[in-house]
Amino acid sequence: MKVFWPISKILLVVALPLVFFTLSVVIAFNSQWLYSYGFEKYDIPGTTGLEKVELEKASRQLIDYFNSDQEYIHVEVLKGGQAFELFNDKEIAHLKDVKGLVLLCHNVLLFSGLYVLLVSALLLVNPGQNWTGLPRGIILGSLLTLAVIAGLGITALIDFRWFFWQFHLISFANDLWLLDPARDYLIMMFPQGFWFDATILVAGLSAGWALVAGTISYAVLYYKEPGARNSRAGTRKPSSPEH
Known about the structure:
Blueprint: H1 4-29, H2 32-41, H3 44-48, H4 52-66, E1 76-79, E2 82-85, H5 89-125, H6 133-158, H7 160-171, H8 185-189, H9 192-224, H10 226-234
Antiparallel strand pairs: 1-2
Helix pairs in contact: 1-5, 1-6, 1-9, 2-4, 6-7, 6-9
């Protein structure tokens, strides 16, 4: 048991960034607002020749697909009054790989979230453990989240093309993601600029969760732990008596 609690607290610190990040990714992939914003910002109707209503219909089907047990997606849209299959076989196969990443995020969010809740409950109810271990762990996890976001964010801002390329090389075991912007609708609908904006959204949400959790934990630790306040007060130099 002497080893159990220190390891549990370390894993708590590591699990929190996973919770914040995967929660943000899941929100982004399910955000109809993000898709509509991208279509408007990058003039996707002009690029694809598809009406905005057809693009939004396709994005809703993508959201449904990422949250279903359907293996492959088939999206039919209208262009010039004619119905056609939006994605070709290569795009459909790549979307299956993307769905695998989304499912991985869901699973990581579930298990890391359950772990955080379980360890938090154990720290609070175990009489042999100081309750301050929980807010301290959350503060450290929040700081770790902000540090990771800062490191990745600086890299992405310096050269997002390289960052985007490396992400795909690491995430996919094939080259199905190498699409042709002249004929593949998937890359026409979601150009690199869209993914830059999505990355900013995920980073901003993750940082927001970390700041809220860290600030609340610090406030609880400060106002509920008398020793912390007393130690701070003790460091202040006494004022000189007036003569």
